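WARN no homologs supplied; continuing
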Amino acid sequence: MPDVEANVQHALNILLPKIKQQHQQSSNPIILGISGLQGSGKSTWASKIVEILTSQYNLHTITISLDDLYKTHDDLIAQKEKDPNNKLYRTRGQPGTHDEQLAAHFFQELANYRGNAELKIPSFDKSQFNGEGDRAPKSSWPVITRKPDVVVFEGWCVGFQPLPASAVQDMHERAVAGKLAINTPAQHSLAHLLEVNDNLKRYCDAFMGPGHFDFFIHIDTDDLRNVYTWRLQQEHKMIEAKGSGMSDEQVRAFIDGYMPSYEVYLGGLREGLFREGGRMVRVELDMLRCVEKVVEL
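OK structure emitted
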């Protein structure tokens, strides 16, 4: 099994000198983004980063997940019913299923926060409505009363950047011709892929573009097929622990919902999120989720 703490420490060691320097020079919270493939362990990485920065470097660190910024259940249902033929929006997850105003408002509040009052962190309860989920009551949201030094913002599509419509069309045509790794964009119409792209552009403008991050860690792999293996392993462990879960076919269908965006947008993120280098680390995992290489971008 991979030593997650050692891997996290390795990646952090590359960024730490600049994180410390920025902390000394600015009173604003440092925003550290984490993007990771399904099953790659990004949530574990996020929690380990919080633990290490807080305990070893005395940097008060909190985390928020893109998942906690989903729309309410009613709004998610409305999103799904707007176009029943759009398979990308049958479940939550894609750009367009999150509350953009809530996200932008939270990060603006965070930028202005000086610890002089309570600040609530949005929360989403995935157990509601038989797993469809709903926003948790505001009374149950986590509360901070001290300005954080570092905020870890993690999510599966955090760091993805919208493409020109012509580039999305080209990716779709290549998938139809069988020229991509798995060719999942071919399972969807070009119009539906462009809808995701338009939603992603709004996300990046409002709260998720390069200008909204100070540093970034991307957990990746050299073979996207590994994502199916990782997620199946996770589900099997959950079934062992809880006695129920998705079938292998359901897991594959679940991953198929995310794979088109991986195939369309990962290439851009692999080239680097920032114009200037040294603020991003790309961690490449093998099939066993062991680190094959760590690259500074």
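The longest strand covers residues 30-36.
OK
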